[in-house]
Specification:
Layout: H1 15-22, H2 58-63, H3 67-82, H4 96-125
C-alpha cells in the first residue's frame, strides 16, 4: 500500500489491543491523540462507547433479571404485539439493509432537530 496517513475514529479496544495495533507503526512518526468529543451545550461525551455483554439467548437474559423486571418486560411486549404500529423482528442478511434504515430512521426522528446541519452526513456514514 502506498499511503502516508491513517485516521481512526472511535476505536473501542482494550489497552492491550491498542498497544498490539500501534506497535506495528514506527515510533518516530506515529502519533495518537484523544480528541475531545464532549458537546458543550449539555456535556454529552460522544467518545464514550457503552456496551453490554449479553447472554446467548433471550431466556438466559430474562433469567438474570428480577421477577418484577421480567413481568414488566412481558407486559410491554404484549402491548407491542397488540399494536400494529411497531413490530419486533430479528435481522437477517436479507433484511439487514432495511432494518438498519429503520433503526437510523428512529435515530433521525430523535436527533434531527438538534443535529440538523450534520444529520444527513451522519446517517450516510452509518450505512445507508
Amino acid at each position: 500500500m502506498n499511503w502516508a496517513r491513517l485516521h481512526l475514529d472511535n476505536v473501542r479496544v482494550s489497552e492491550r489491543q491498542w498497544r498490539l495495533l500501534t506497535a506495528c507503526f514506527p515510533k518516530a512518526s506515529f502519533h495518537s491523540t484523544k480528541v475531545d468529543k464532549v458537546i458543550k451545550v449539555d456535556g454529552i461525551d460522544n467518545s464514550l462507547c457503552p456496551y453490554a455483554t449479553l447472554p446467548n439467548d433471550w431466556n438466559a437474559y430474562l433469567d438474570a433479571l428480577s421477577t418484577n423486571t421480567r413481568q414488566k418486560i412481558r407486559r410491554l411486549l404484549k402491548q407491542v404485539d397488540a399494536s400494529s404500529e411497531y413490530r419486533i423482528t430479528v435481522a437477517t442478511s436479507e433484511t439487514f439493509d432495511r432494518d438498519l434504515k429503520t433503526l437510523l430512521g428512529f435515530w433521525d426522528t430523535k436527533w434531527r432537530a438538534r443535529k440538523a446541519d450534520r444529520m444527513d452526513g451522519l446517517i450516510r456514514s452509518n450505512g445507508t
